[in-house]
Design brief:
alpha/beta, binds S-adenosylmethionine, Methyltransferase, Cobalt-precorrin-4 Transmethylase, Domain 2, about 35% helix, five-stranded mixed sheet, five-stranded parallel sheet
């Protein structure tokens, strides 16, 4: 039976993809990709010739109905994002929800995402955690952080290198200078770096050494 299949793709090293993901991408009737040029790099590397169509946050509202109709009509469609798991700080949610509402089968393959290696590698408790994704850039940023001041679970944030120092300073104010944290940069890439220490130390470290690349911040929860 036809369905929607969400396929996680590498966050760095192109080898970080499962055999099953490659099989699904090779056999789907259509691949929806956040950025078709980015997707082509991966698909060419694995010699996959499946038809590609663009599906991103600017066109997803318009295209979900026709995508659902294609699946109902018998086409199995794979959804990929630029990197990692679709739906995790990436397009996917709207399509999944619409498919479920219409009774269309949805399957998500297990696979790469930045938050899990960052969490596990941080050395901070990973028995209970919360994923906060990107903080709002302006309005609501302060409120989001103050709402997390009493959080006892380990917290995971995605952040741009341009706002890393600002974020660490703000977290220092809301959670305390000595709160333990880890910044994971460029996971699964040549210049992967994991720096652990207090929020104050990390803010100072990256003030002196301007960060580049993709970043996950993992922060210990408040001690209960
Ligand atoms: N869907 C992706 C996932 O499953 O992790 C997340 C996509 S989101 C648009 C991109 C953000 O994820 C980056 O700004 C960064 O915070 C994080 N990220 C993605 N790849 C990363 C990597 N290789 N190293 C560190 N962080 C990464």
């Amino acid at each position: 039976m036809s369905k929607l299949i969400l396929v996680p793709t590498p966050i760095g090293n192109l080898k970080d993809i499962t055999f099953r993901a490659l099989e699904v991408l090779g056999s789907a009737g259509l691949i929806l990709a956040e950025d078709t040029r980015q997707a082509s790099k991966l698909l060419n590397h694995y010699n996959i010739r499946t038809l590609l169509q663009s599906h991103h946050m600017f066109n997803e509202h318009k295209s979900v109905e026709s995508i659902c109709n294609k699946i109902i009509g018998g086409l199995t469609i794979a959804l990929i994002s630029d990197a990692g798991t679709p739906g995790i700080s990436d397009p996917g949610f709207l399509l999944v929800r619409t498919c479920i509402e219409k009774g269309i089968e949805v399957e998500t393959l297990p696979g790469p995402t930045a938050m899990v290696p960052a969490l596990v590698n941080s050395g901070l408790p990973c028995d209970r955690f919360c994923f906060e994704g990107f903080l709002p850039q302006k309005k609501g940023r302060n409120k989001r952080l103050s709402g997390l001041a009493e959080e006892t679970r380990t917290m995971i944030f995605y952040e741009s290198p341009y706002r890393l120092v600002k974020a660490l300073n703000e977290m220092s104010e809301h959670f305390g200078r000595d709160r333990e944290a880890c910044v994971s940069r460029e996971l699964s890439k040549i210049y992967e770096e994991n720096i652990r220490g207090s929020l104050a130390f990390l803010a100072e470290y990256y003030r002196e050494k301007t960060p580049k690349g993709e970043i996950v911040i993992v922060v210990a929860g408040k001690k209960s």
